[in-house]
Write a structure and sequence with these properties.
single chain, 467 residues, alpha/beta, five-stranded parallel β-sheet, 18 strands, globular, disordered C terminus
């Protein structure tokens, strides 16, 4: 059963689940909850319509995970909200079958999500959740919200009550500290890659463009600019802190670090161990897919066929330490970690493919902060079932999505774990397996403590060593 998300009345029972935010992860939760008997849900999203990273829907860019990493398929492949169901609704199953595409265009994934977000009956756009509090008498969370018009003006306010919350407020583009003053200056052509497409023409007109960041977004922006600029006058520099422009880990066993088995293993590690481990896993999420790296090299090679080298510099191992405008241009102060040297680069525009950071929860949960349990670094503790750990005085649970990399590891933002995580949350709310989940998901065994299964012979050996 669903709830339309209208304001609660005094005699109306609280919702079972209220989602705040309607990005891919909470859309997955809404899709898997849809049609569940006896479960009342609603999802509030402050945007007035859905778009998934619109600034990076570059022509030809593909999703980095297979199409099965949709909202539901890895838990309920027969769901009406699957990507294949979307294709069926558009009469495109046979073209997709003939195309033999395991990795779909990013624009197609965006269209699929927009289709689902518009049709799911529990999703309400133009509803901004403002503050969350606990209502002891109703034994429910009280969420005050504002209804927004298309232009952002306030249309009204209201409140909803729910026994459980799911926070899916997403991440925000990260701007390195030295570049924030220029990024905040509308006159300075310094922007995050999240805003690339609206500024593409301006960047193509610039004499020299610098792309900062070694991941997939940086590679795609560089490749798109390179293909559009004339040979011999490319005027491009690609900088990255990582020691190399490295391919993303995409081996079959390597990908098992994006399974529920590894997530459980990582969650069971000591906090200090998790914090040490994450930076060393950069190639799992900061690398570039092989095809994009190959396409960049192919384009550069093609421009050498008649002699000479393209005006493109690819320099890893470099960090931007300072940034300032000088006579209408941008001057970057650089430091090379391995050489222990510094240098300066003058450019006309900068695209920051510097990733995203989790949006802080403190403002939304200000009235709950005193009840939340935090780790040694002041971050909220999150249990295995995605709940924020609290002091026990709150009668409900606050679940989080894509805000728990410090506790759940590199798979936190991965689309392939969306359906599984949503099923974990729904099963926890229901107290039963609405969506049965497999006990094992990887061939790799992580650890010796029973976090993931061991073969019988190995288990016996571990028990002898660890009585």
């Amino acid at each position: 059963m669903t709830s339309p998300g209208h304001p609660s009345t005094p005699d109306e029972p609280p919702l079972d689940l209220l989602g705040i935010g309607a990005g891919p992860f909470n859309l997955s939760l809404a899709a898997l909850a849809d049609g569940t008997p006896g479960l009342t849900t609603a999802f509030l999203e402050q945007r007035t319509g859905f778009h998934w990273h619109p600034g990076l829907l570059i022509d030809g860019a593909t999703l980095q995970v297979p199409f099965l990493a949709d909202l539901v398929s890895l838990v309920e492949p027969s769901s009406p909200w699957s990507f294949l169901s979307y294709l069926k609704s558009r009469g495109r199953l046979f073209p997709f079958y003939v195309a033999e595409r395991f990795h779909i265009p990013r624009t197609e994934y965006d269209a699929y999500l927009r289709w689902a977000s518009a049709a799911l009956p529990t999703v309400r756009f133009g509803h901004r959740a403002d503050v969350v509090s606990w209502h002891p008498r109703r034994q429910a969370f009280e969420v005050a919200f504002t209804r927004l018009a298309e232009n952002g003006d306030t249309e009204g306010t209201g409140r909803l009550f729910a026994r459980n919350l799911a926070l899916g407020i997403g991440t925000a583009p990260y701007i390195p500290t030295p570049l924030r003053p220029l990024a905040d200056d509308p006159r300075a052509p310094v922007l995050h890659s999240a805003d690339y497409l609206p500024h593409r023409d301006r960047l193509l007109a610039a004499r020299h463009v610098t792309v900062v960041g070694s991941g997939q977004s940086g590679a795609e922006v560089l490749l798109d600019l390179l293909r559009a600029r004339p040979a011999g006058r490319e005027g491009l520099t690609w900088l990255a802190r990582t020691p190399a422009f490295a391919p993303m880990e995409y081996s079959k066993l390597g990908l098992e670090q994006f399974t529920p088995d590894y997530t459980r293993y990582f969650h069971g590690l000591p906090e200090a161990t998790r914090d040490r481990l994450l930076p060393h896993q950069w190639q799992l999420y900061k690398g570039v897919d092989h095809d994009t790296l190959a396409a960049i090299h192919d384009e550069l090679y093609r421009r050498t066929l008649h002699g000479g080298w393209p005006d493109v510099a690819l320099t890893p191992g470099v960090e931007v330490r300072t940034a300032e405008t000088t006579r209408g241009r941008i001057e970057l102060g650089l430091e090379h970690a391995q050489q222990e040297t510094t240098g300066r680069l003058t450019t006309d525009a900068v695209v920051l493919a510097t990733g995203y950071r989790e949006r802080p929860l403190d403002g939304l949960l200000a009235k709950l902060n005193d009840h939340l349990v935090r780790d040694d670094a002041g971050r909220p503790q999150v249990d295995r079932e995605q709940r924020l750990v609290h002091d026990g005085t709150l009668g409900g649970s606050v679940f989080v999505q894509n805000a728990e990399r410090h506790t759940h590891g590199v798979g936190t933002p991965d689309l392939g774990l969306a359906a599984w995580r949503s099923a974990v949350i729904l099963n926890a709310i229901a107290g039963r397996d609405i969506h049965p989940l497999p006990p094992r998901t990887a061939f790799t065994t992580f650890g010796l403590d029973g976090t993931t299964p061991l073969p019988a012979t190995s288990r016996a050996g571990a028990e002898k060593e660890n009585p």
